[in-house]
Amino acid sequence: MSQQNNPNLINSIQSEVSKEASPLLDFLVKNSKKIALAVLLIAVVAIAYGSYTLYAESALEEARDELGRIVVRPDSAEKIQSLLDFAEPATGELKTAALMAAASAATTVGNYELAAKTWNQAAELVGEPMYFSARMGEASALGRLGREPEALEILLALQGKAAPEQLPVLSGMILEVAEQLGRWDVAMQSCELIIGNDAVTMDKAFWRQRLEYLRLKQAESPAGEQAAEPVGAAN
Predict the structure, then answer these.
(1) Are 158 and 235 in contact (CB under 8 A)?
(2) Taking the complete model, does pTM exceed 0.85, yes or no?
């Protein structure tokens, strides 16, 4: 249709619509170019967003594959450094996974200083239950470094957060560290925590026997040898 006929077409359309619809039609006619531009912009944004989403998913998959290739290597200083290098720019779950893998490898090769530091970094990024595991790893590494008081402080702070299924492992670590420090009161309370907890479904004979042993050790200890700090006092 020629350009000269276009006004007739518009007039014809306008004559067919009701008075109520005329303002809307006038608006559409007067702003047709702006509307078309807005629709085009929406389409461009949608296409760009879709392209970015595909790119992000592809990049994430490649990053996961790269991390997987590093994790399966034998534990060594080179593997640990590769994991730390990967974690530096990474975010979210990939960063956490890389740090925890590095901490685990550092523990295996006996680099407890690095293990404690990296477990601590991982703990700052995660929630339960990974937080519990990371802090336990940090406490274990500190214990290997001869820093038992720090390790015990971390472990005691976890008691109020531990689920029933986590308590036996946690109490076992507290028991070990507290005995090394001569903290018989803390060690006994870790046993009593298991014995008196009905949610812990396990044979508690070991804990009862250990409690009796600890009572004997406390009785044999010179008065005032151990500190009087109660379980749970540490933050």
Answers:
(1) no
(2) no
